[in-house]
């Protein structure tokens, strides 16, 4: 918009205390929120922890955004808003974890790419849970895959992939297209609310089975417990 006012705000999404403090101030200043895009990201070679002691990609991709969504819930409903979780194509090759040690990437040898993909899978499940939670409020909640974009994460952690796919990697603007479109147009959406290139997609590939509802419930219980938020009132039976 040519006459829009752009205001920059800073919040460490991986620090739950920082999210709480920032959200309180934001809610005082902004009575209604029309769009919230969770796009903060990180990828590390070694296992690192947030201030609260959670594996860093889990904190940045899952716990912080979940807490922010919860704390801004009234402002989102007042919008009503569209909430978009920017996931990754890597999540299609990652299984969902329901065990605390696996969620926190404490089991086996740490692999930053695998931890990233796993938390991106968690985002898709979490977005679907939030869509059920906020059904009837006017708030839309979706997750989306931006396509393979030439980001520092791809070039630094997947150099061979980046070299091979370089000619077809998308720009940041191209990667953002579906997220912006979802907020701007608010299309009808159905579970699991996962989008790619402005169309709804499956969250599994041919050989994968739908998520185990018990694993989904245990993951969501872990997330709400770690973030200190109220439990979800209802959980979708499947995210496939």
Question: What does this molecule look like?
Answer:
There is one protein chain. By secondary structure, this protein is α/β, with parallel strands linked by helices. It has a single domain, classed as 3-Layer(aba) Sandwich (Rossmann fold). 43% of the residues lie in helices and 8% in strands. It has helices at residues 16-29, 56-71, 73-78, 100-103, 112-133, 152-157, 159-165, 172-185, 213-227; strands at residues 35-38, 82-86, 140-145, 194-196, 199-200. It has a five-stranded mixed sheet, sandwiched between helices. A hairpin with a 2-residue loop joins strand 4 (194-196) and strand 5 (199-200). The longest helix has 22 residues, at 112-133. The termini are far apart. The mean pLDDT is 89.
In short:
With 240 residues, this protein is of the alpha/beta class.
Fold blueprint:
Blueprint lengths: L15 H14 L5 E4 L17 H16 L1 H6 L3 E5 L13 H4 L8 H22 L6 E6 L6 H6 L1 H7 L6 H14 L8 E3 L2 E2 L12 H15 L13
Parallel strand pairs: 1-2, 2-3, 3-4
Antiparallel strand pairs: 4-5
Summary keywords:
240 residues, alpha/beta, Rossmann fold, five-stranded mixed sheet, 5 strands, globular
Our estimate of the beta-strand percent is 5-15%
As laid out across the biggest beta sheet, the strand order is: 1-2-3-4-5
CATH architecture: 3-Layer(aba) Sandwich
CATH superfamily heading? NAD(P)-binding Rossmann-like Domain
Q: What is the helix tally?
A: 9
